[in-house]
Amino acid sequence: xxxxxxYEVHNCDVQSDRSYFYSRDLFPLAYAEVKTxxxxxxxxxxxxxxxxxxxxxxxxxxxxxxxxxxxxLIPGFEDPIAExxxxxxxxxxxxxxYGDEATKLLQLVYAVREYDPDFIVTSSGDxxxxxxxxxxxxxxxxxxxxxxxxxxxxxxxxxxxxxHTYFSYGHTFYRAGTVRxxxxxxxxxxxxFIVKESGFDGFIEIARTCRVPLHTAARFSxxxxxxxxxxxxxxxxxxxxxxxxxxxxxxxxxxxxxxxDRGGFIFEPRLGxxxxxxxxxxxxxxxxxxxKYNISAETVLCKCCxxxxxxxxxxxxHICKKRVGMVPKTVDLALTKRLTYKRLRDEAMDKRQRQIxxxxxxxxxxxxxxxxxxxxxxxxxxxxxxxxxxxxxxxxDNFLKAAHLAEAQGFEVVHGIVDSLWLKKPDAALEDxxxxxxxxxxxxxxxxxxxxxxxxxxxxxxRLHSHVSVLNRYLGVxxxxxxxxxxxxxxxxxxxxxxxxxxxxxxNTLAEAANTAxxxxxxxxAIKVLRTYRQLLLDGDVPLSDLMISKHMSKEPRRYRxxxxxxxxxQQLARHGLxxxxxxxxxxxxxxAAHRCYDLRVKASQLIEKGTNPDTRKYLMLLYSSAxxxxxxxxxxxxxxxxxxxxxxxxxxxx
Length: 655
What we know:
- By secondary structure, the chain is an alpha+beta fold.
- Among the domains are: 61-191, Ribonuclease H-like superfamily/Ribonuclease H (Nucleotidyltransferase, domain 5), CATH 3.30.420.10; 266-322 and 378-485, Palm domain of DNA polymerase (Alpha-Beta Complex), CATH 3.90.1600.10.
- The chain has 17 helices and 19 strands.
- The chain has a 7-stranded antiparallel β-sheet. A 5-stranded mixed β-sheet has the order 5-4-3-6-9. Strands 17-18-19 form a 3-stranded antiparallel β-sheet, with helices on one face.
- A hairpin with a 2-residue loop joins strand 7 and strand 8.
- The N and C termini lie far apart (70 Å).
């Protein structure tokens, strides 16, 4: 009616499918008894959202892929279908490659009806594959018969929605418009975060725990899934959900901001290689603090408990003692389940069962990570900036206490960052670290775990300043053989596979060392690995697919001021009728990185033809740079890596 700004409106933005779950206390894949009555369906729930060992039905999964008979380099909606490929539960593969287009489409309908999958999995199904199939069905006058849903509902031109770009946690993302099926679930692997991160096991865990329909959960952001838990809890507690958050941030002086808004605490790492180091890690530290100290929008600076002795460090803000906040209530479920899954994973003997527990705890980890960010999010209905600052203050206080307790028992802090400590003590046994964890947990009230003991760990310097340490750039090998890497090329998403493989093999070579002395002796062996990869590139034995670089498009191409690689690629694709949206990724190969003509520097992956040659010099520079980053503990630079690989002093590529 247009008066939503004049009146306070509540419970207006909860989707009907989620509202149905909330009101009946149901969740996806719940085991229930259902009776049909005159007034509707009557449920008897035989399951529990807190259940750990729940049984998942034997779901049938079909993977759908379509080959396009391209007339040009980039496939278009006017290009005919070459073949359709179907794979059931990763086993049987069926190819539909005979007859005209109408026959192929109707054979697809028949195959889907026969196999009757619960899930249809695609790659780019939302953005291209399904819109393409709908267009081809329309062009061949079989759109009314093109039914892939269980319900007898055909597609139409309005079956696909428009995608959108959004901004979250400092990054720009693009989500393609969704294509729904009725009675089946369509999962687009290129349009889902949770399936990528934790597989189907984690995806189902999120849908159950957050009470979000499977189709929606596959495309939801983690923040939206976490909000669903809060909405359920609010309706269960008979609380109204405001359309807009009403709690403002408390006024702060410049002094208050300086003292209070400081983030997590960090001990600067000690440069170089260290032998015999133990790592301690707080388990879900921030969510645990939110639960322990009852931090929520309605509890921080509440009006009912001004004399509360539960105070935020540094700022002194009081926290309610008469009621449990909405945020601690919702965090409790995910926190409890994750800790249980981690324990069961470590105890499980069966490999498949261990994988299931690990994927479920990974999915819940993202919920817990997000709940802290949402606490300070402007549109979060139960968020509070003051609470967000308060969690950081409690974290700093508890982290320092843990460090002091460790030092009191003779341990030396080598590095510490927010919720992890790297400690060293002469002749310390594993039992000493475990006893320290028990002592800290008992004193602070937040569980801290012993992550493992390193044979050696190196804290690497800044690329620009060789005497300055970097907080999150290290490499270590544990007694178990596990390798932990942060800040190197193998951890970056834009690293081409060729560089990734080279650095991985070099790391594995260094990992054979048992201590610092052996590590330095292994360095020449790592150079030999590098020499092998260099020769592969010079001999032309590296496929172009291994040289692909992926770059994120943080804004619209026209808004870039510089002709960076991803902008050049976007312009190339635009000339072929393919628009690149902000929030998407572009893939390309360097062809002549130093050429004066921008368009000749790179080539989009979609436009690569036979005879396209990579810029060998550019990839050699990337190879040497990645090796120098890894071997910087021994004083290597790209120049000295180049000289070592050549085995002689020559004029450098970097001169």
